[in-house]
């Protein structure tokens, strides 16, 4: 198997992209979960799908767009969706969670329109929905790598601000931190990682890679840094094992990865229970 | 020498929609004071704080922090703040006491900068000052309400603020620990010279410790030294407040 990874470029691409995503998605996921924003990832992934559908539609009708990587349009839509979520959250101050169904259904609505305009599903779209081992191109790998570098760099640089904002938003505002700006940067990072994860886990399952490893991690972590460490560990475990399994058994990688992440979560919960006696 | 005022309010009024919450408040807090602000629920205490912390803008009047008008004030790290955390706190948050206290240095250190060795030392000292050293690597959610409140005070003092504002800090704190909690505040005030403003409706406990008292119920009914306040007697005071004042017995 290891030999095959080096032999076939498409496998190598899938693994490199997978490892990068297995790191960045849970890293941002920790902040998302503790801020109780888990559903935002879901909303944004559906907006990303709309972007991808739009790009596929354009590519079909105009030769000029045919060579565009749909990931870029996905990213554009995702970031725009993130900005829109923020806007809605400030409009509905007392119903902040309303932003999520609005954006989510908007994303699905647009996707469906674009897909029907493009005469329905094809394999390409299917791989965006559920992930694919064979669909990751070299260009995708570079894009994911660039996003991973940006995300990790910014999280390191803004770590203490992000921590404070997650732990105590009111205190962050009072202490004179530029809370709005930092939150804005964060949500854009989330949008980028979602678009980047699309190829491997697919639109329907991305949010799980941001939340499931974190859900397991916060059961056992002492402190925030440890919570991040465990989340990334569980994320990588499920992505790597999931890709191996899905290749061997010819399954969609998204589903395999998510089921493994759930297994890890169950094991952690049971282990914790057993330890308590 | 002229008295230095850490906080000064001149004719401050605030209203939400049409309801007046604060009317013509004049307040001056000298450096090194321990001011207790008492008032019943709904007396505008929290609103007053939000104005002082720059979260709300009063419709009338002026607020000065360390002699600077609040509109141009930038040194927010000189002010520490402890809210009624025990009520609203997410106990499942995976953060150690150490991490929570260190987060109090975020603004002082500034964006894109990392904590230094000196910062780490300051964190340990702040944790020690509130008597929580042995819990430093525990998750914040594992502590009792009183212990959590101590941690939040450590977070507020780690940046060495000159003014520390506490909004009903003993809400949710076990009654047996309230006394030692006030002793600790007293210590911070005397030993570290931090000016304290404490808001509470528990008037009995504070008059023993504070140097100044202010009584708030929309208007400021009394503002002066604690000794003068004691002379007033409880009779007079309940007139200010109607029947809503909660007088708890002194414990000597």
* Secondary structure: helix percent of chain B: 25-40%
The assembly state of the depicted protein chains is: heterodimer
Q: What structural class is derived from the secondary structure elements of chain A? A: mainly alpha
Largest interface, and how many residues on either side?
A-B, 28 and 32 residues
Q: Under the CATH scheme, which architecture of the domain at 3-87 and 160-239 in chain B would be assigned?
A: 3-Layer(aba) Sandwich
Sheet with the most strands of chain A? Answer: none
Shape of chain B: globular
Number of helices of chain A: 13
**In whole angstroms, how far apart are the ends of chain B?**
36 Å
User: What's the tally of helices of chain B?
Assistant: 9
Helix content of chain A: over 70%
Report the radius of gyration of chain B as a whole number of Å.
18 Å
Largest sheet of chain B: 6 strands, mixed
Rg result of chain A:
19 Å
Structural class of chain B: alpha/beta
For the largest beta sheet of chain B, what order do the strands appear in spatially? 6-7-8-3-9-10
| Topology pattern of chain A, helix = H, strand = E | HHHHHHHHHHHHH
Per CATH, what is the topology of the domain at 3-87 and 160-239 in chain B? Rossmann fold
| Strand fraction of chain B | 25-35%
The chain-level mean pLDDT of chain A equals 89
């Amino acid at each position: 198997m290891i030999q095959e990874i080096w032999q076939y470029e498409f496998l190598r691409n899938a693994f490199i992209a997978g490892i990068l995503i297995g790191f960045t998605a849970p890293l941002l996921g920790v902040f998302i979960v503790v801020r109780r924003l888990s559903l935002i990832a879901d909303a944004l992934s559906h907006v990303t799908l709309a972007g991808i559908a739009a790009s596929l539609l354009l590519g079909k009708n105009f030769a000029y767009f045919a060579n565009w990587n749909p990931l870029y349009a996905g990213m554009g839509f995702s970031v725009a969706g993130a900005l829109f979520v923020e806007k809605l959250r400030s409009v509905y101050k007392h119903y902040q969670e309303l932003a999520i169904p609005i954006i989510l259904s908007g994303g699905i609505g647009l996707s469906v329109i674009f897909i029907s305009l493009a005469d329905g599903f094809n394999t390409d779209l299917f791989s965006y929905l559920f992930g694919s081992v064979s669909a990751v191109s070299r260009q995708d790998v570079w894009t994911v790598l660039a996003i991973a570098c940006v995300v990790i760099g910014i999280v390191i640089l803004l770590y203490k601000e992000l921590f404070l904002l997650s732990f105590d938003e009111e205190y962050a505002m009072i202490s004179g931190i530029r809370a709005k700006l930092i939150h804005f940067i964060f949500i854009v990072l989330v949008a980028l990682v979602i678009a980047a994860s699309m190829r491997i886990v697919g639109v329907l399952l991305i949010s799980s890679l941001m939340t499931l490893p974190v859900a397991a991690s916060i059961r056992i972590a002492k402190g925030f840094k440890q919570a991040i460490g465990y989340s990334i560990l569980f994320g990588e475990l499920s992505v790597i094992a999931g890709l191996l399994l899905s290749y061997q058994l010819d399954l969609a990688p998204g589903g395999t990865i998510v089921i493994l992440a759930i297994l890890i979560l169950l094991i952690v919960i049971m282990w914790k229970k057993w330890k308590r006696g | 020498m002229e008295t230095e005022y850490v906080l000064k309010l001149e004719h401050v009024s605030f209203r939400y929609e049409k309801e007046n919450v604060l009317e013509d408040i004049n307040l001056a807090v000298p450096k090194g004071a321990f001011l207790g602000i008492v008032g019943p629920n709904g007396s505008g205490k929290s609103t007053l704080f939000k104005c002082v912390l720059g979260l709300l803008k009063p419709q009338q009047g002026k607020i000065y922090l360390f002699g600077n008008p609040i509109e141009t004030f930038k040194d927010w790290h000189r002010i520490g703040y402890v809210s009624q955390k025990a009520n609203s706190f997410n106990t499942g948050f995976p953060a150690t006491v150490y991490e929570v206290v260190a987060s109090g240095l975020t603004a002082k250190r500034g964006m894109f900068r990392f904590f230094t060795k000196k910062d780490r030392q300051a964190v340990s000292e702040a944790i020690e000052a509130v008597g929580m050293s042995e819990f430093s690597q525990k998750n914040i959610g594992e502590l009792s309400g009183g212990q959590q409140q101590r941690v939040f005070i450590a977070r507020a003092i780690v940046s060495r603020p000159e003014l520390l504002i506490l909004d009903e800090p003993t809400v949710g704190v076990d009654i047996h620990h309230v006394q030692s909690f006030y002793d600790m505040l007293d210590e911070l005030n005397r030993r570290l010279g931090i000016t304290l403003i404490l808001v509470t409706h528990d008037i009995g406990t504070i008059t023993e410790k504070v140097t100044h008292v202010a009584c708030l119920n929309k208007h400021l009914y009394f503002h002066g030294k604690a000794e003068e306040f004691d002379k007033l007697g409880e009779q007079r005071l309940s007139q200010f407040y109607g029947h809503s004042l909660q007088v708890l017995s002194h414990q000597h």
